[in-house]
Amino acid sequence: MRRKIVAGNWKMNTVIQDGLDLAESVKKNAEKGLPENVMLILAPPFTHLAGLKNILPDNIGLAAQNCASEESGAFTGEVSAAMVASSGANYVIIGHSERRLYFKETDPELNKKIKLALASQLSPIFCCGENLHEREKGIHTEVVKKQIELGLSDIPEADFKRIIIAYEPVWAIGTGKTATPDQAQDMHLYIRTQIKEMYGEETAGNTSILYGGSCNPSNARELFANSDVDGGLIGGASLKADDFLAIARSF
Ligand code: 13P
């Protein structure tokens, strides 16, 4: 059975102490119980990773929001996959649309990041999704297909099994405009079918595909009710422990 995952992408929010307080609140609230087979992951800024590792229980995953596309060396300001792993994190978000858009990250570069993350024993959370223009033109499936083909090319099946996919339509991120449950289900099924073509039925069936984009406690239930929506990658609502946990309890 594939895992249900609710991951909080804090983006560039919270200084370290606020992040520790937020993680503590998430941990306390989670202790009250979660639906069966639901797992939480927190993705704070790099500076918070080691501190959060110290306070989080093993059943809450820890993710970086990015890693470098080079292994090591003279790349001032970059943080390598090995460094992320050495902080205690076990996941890394790769290919978020904000990285693609503002930092001009390309598909081949993302493919390098995925491979380096896997080599450092991290599980990548690979983001894909079309922008509004592409949705309106009706080319959203082609866009996502290409992102997956290029970003996840040339990954051995054993490694692919560690990858989590997050479908995040850019027009839904931070806009309050959520994809409808049907739009999410259609794209998730499309992505799963693509994985099936690449790796077969079993691997496709075991891959968790998360939805991201203005997911909140009021709309999570109808999104998560779809058979191919295995959870969410949550931005704004993950900055409030109660909202984040309410989303996790929407299964
Ligand atoms: P919001 O939940 O704030 O729309 O952000 C989604 C997102 O980008 C998560 O990675």
Structure commentary:
The structure is a single chain. Helices cover 42% and strands 15% of the residues. The protein is of the alpha/beta class and 251 residues long. Helix 1 packs parallel to helix 12 and helix 7 (140-151) packs parallel to helix 9 (181-199). The longest helix has 19 residues, at 181-199. The radius of gyration is 17 Å and the shape is globular. The mean pLDDT is 97. The structure holds 1,3-dihydroxyacetonephosphate. The site of 1,3-dihydroxyacetonephosphate has 14 residues, from strand 8.
Task: Briefly note the structural class of the backbone.
Answer: alpha/beta
User: H/E series, N to C?
Assistant: EHEHEHEHHEHHHEHHEHEH
CATH topology: TIM Barrel
CATH class: Alpha Beta
The major β-sheet equals: 8 strands, parallel
Q: What small molecules accompany the polymer chains?
A: 1,3-dihydroxyacetonephosphate
Q: Per the principal axes of the C-alpha atoms, what is the gross shape?
A: globular
Number of helices: 12
Share in β-strands: 15-25%
How many domain regions? 1
User: Average pLDDT across residues?
Assistant: 97
Number of DSSP strands?
Answer: 8
Strand order of the largest sheet: 7-6-5-4-3-2-1-8
| CATH architecture label name | Alpha-Beta Barrel
- For the record, give the distance between the C-alpha atoms at the N and C termini, rounded to a whole number: 15 Å
Helix content: 40-55%
